[in-house]
Hints:
Blueprint: H1 2-24, H2 60-68
Amino acid sequence: xxxxxxxxxKLLFLPALFxxxxxxxxxxxxxxxxxxxxxxxxxSGYGDFAHNGNPTIxxxxxxxxxxxxxxxx
Length: 73
């Protein structure tokens, strides 16, 4: 029972976080709101992108995004 409750809390955390983030910007002009891009990737590792030091794979668009913004790893 306790494990089910914990799993439910984990499942509802991200949607609640996105809801709160979207409500905090309600009524603001588009120029004032922050841009947020969230990537969910399957079967990729930390070193699979050029901005993390991979010399073989070129990812210029992702590299540009990481140079202009904040990169959480």
